[in-house]
Amino acid sequence: LPDSSIFHPNNNNNNINNNNNNNNIFSPNKSVKTAVANRRRERGNSDISFTDLTYETNSMIAASLDEHIVVPWLPDSFMLDTPADCKLLIQIEEQCMNTKDSNISGLWIYKPSSCNRGRGIKVIKGLDALNTLCYGVKTDDPDTTIPPATGIIQRYIENPLLIPGPSNVMNETTLNDNSPPNGHKFDIRCYLLIARNDPTYLAYYYPGYCRLTTVPYNSDENCLDDATIHLTNASIQKQGEKYQEMKEFQIQNTNAIADILEKYTATKHNADYIRNGRLDHDIKLCLVDVLKAGIPILSRKRGYFDLLGCDFMITNNNELKLLEINSNPAMSLDNSTLAELLPSVIEHTIDIVIAAQGPDLPPTALKDPTASDNRSEVLNNLPGKFQLLYNENTKYEYS
Q1: Three-state DSSP class for residue 391
Q2: Which of the residues 247, 295, 349, 358 has an alpha carbon 20 to 30 A from that of 83?
């Protein structure tokens, strides 16, 4: 195939992040968020709200500020190279300080442009820190002058679903709630395969695995600089003192996480959300929105395809949050879960991409399980755990 990526190499606006990792492709700019919001409104999703100022909870204070679009699965997000976003970010923080509402997060997470492996990511707090990011610090001394930051900043998710640590599991300690003391943050890495985008888009979903921190969660101000508490990607966790002894704990499949939640927490609704299909359903709805929002701004060319790593977080009340979309997801086999999962993901990706490339197959061929040609056979009987998400030719999309 002449090219392996559908994303234009000169596109530097590539971060949509609350957590970590590689070369992210979608920026939460106004056009993308508007497109996604329109898609959600078409579905009749009442969670979308358009007001002068709407916090992520959709119920906070409205003020005479610039339009701010809230997408339920996307934390409040701002591009630091956009003056209007910087202005709005500062105004929102001032509103938060004035309300002193405990339901509004006082933490933000910043990620610089064009970085990976968690480099440069910071959890920050306070108006002074935000002003420094947005506008820099000007002094007469070049050595002390701080230029404005580039990249994105998002509201930090302060109510993540936490997983009881190994000590609880080993001692078979049942905890009383779904925010266990010494609980560990985790996110979910799954995959979006865009098997082609010319003449039409064809995309698939693959459920993935969970990545945990090796250090218990702590949002105290004196712990904000500890990346091993806040970021789950392996390159950060490998820097921790306990990584080697917790390597198998750090990466687990979703069923194992649901089992831990069910056995060692008093509330079962989080385990049910993961296990009964609702998690996969919400992820697939979100990925359709992301894909359709990105189609108008991405290049189309025969031979283009990409396997994207999609990272999500679950809050303690079962809200799904999109962290980032990665155009270069890690494929290292660092533990037994990855060694079992990733080789088949790569092998089946190749099978599907080869079958998907070329002229559109007639809709009848895609619906006929007895079709004899190799392309139809692969696409009618998808290998592994791949699931059809979007077919522009047949106008199918998961819903």
Answers
A1: strand
A2: 295
